[in-house]
Amino acid sequence: MEEDEELEAIRKKKVEELQFQAQQQEVLEEQQRLIEAERQNIMRQILTPQARERLGRLKTARPELVQNIEDQLIALARAGRVAGQINDEELRKLLSRLMPKKREIRIERR
Questions:
Q1: If we measure between CA atoms, which residue out of 87, 94, 92 comes closest to residue 46?
Q2: For 66-83, what is each residue's pLDDT tens digit?
Q3: SS3 string of the chain?
Q4: What is the distance, to the nearest Å, from the Cα of residue 81 to the centroid of all Cα atoms in its chain?
Q5: Which domains does the chain have, with CATH numbers?
Q6: For 7-36, what is each residue's pLDDT tens digit?
Q7: Torsions phi, psi of 86, nearest 5?
Q8: What does the angle CA 30 – CA 62 – CA 60 come to, to the nearest 5 degrees?
Q9: Are 43 and 73 in contact (CB under 8 A)?
Q10: Mean pLDDT of 36-55
Q11: How far apart are CA 33 and CA 82, in angstroms?
Q12: What's the rounded Cα separation, in Å, for the pair 101 and 19?
């Protein structure tokens, strides 16, 4: 009888731990959704639709670069250093400065 009670107590404790972890995960996911929604809202305010479209296309190829650029743009916007909206041409200039230079690979045969 005691073993059954101990086993049941262990099971109950494990179920409670799993429920707590699931709740924590839900809270974390909700926070992430809110942060992403806020980021997208700021990006809508500081970029023209064409510039946002360009960033969206670039995000599929280089998500870490776009994340970095978005972080920088959001920081500038929060500091009040973005005057008006950034258009596609300005974004292209910014991207050309921030993207790593392509290295030319030459193979010489002798």
A1: 87
A2: 999 999 999 999 998 888
A3: CHHHHHHHHHHHHHHHHHHHHHHHHHHHHHHHHHHHHHHHHHHHHHECHHHHHHHHHHHHHCHHHHHHHHHHHHHHHHCCCCCCCECHHHHHHHHHHHCCCCCCCCCCCC
A4: 22
A5: 2-97 (1.10.8.140)
A6: 999 999 999 999 999 999 999 999 999 999
A7: -85, 125
A8: 70
A9: yes
A10: 94
A11: 25
A12: 49
Tokens of 42: 């700021």
pTM, to two decimals: 0.70
CB-based contact 46:86 (threshold 8 Å) = yes
Residue bearing tokens 């707590």? 20
Whether the Cβ atoms of residue 69 and residue 94 lie closer than 8 Å to each other: yes
Residues 6+ apart with CB under 8 A from 72: 98
| AA identity, residue 52 | R
Phi-psi region of 106 (alpha: psi -120 to 50; beta: other; left: phi over 0): beta
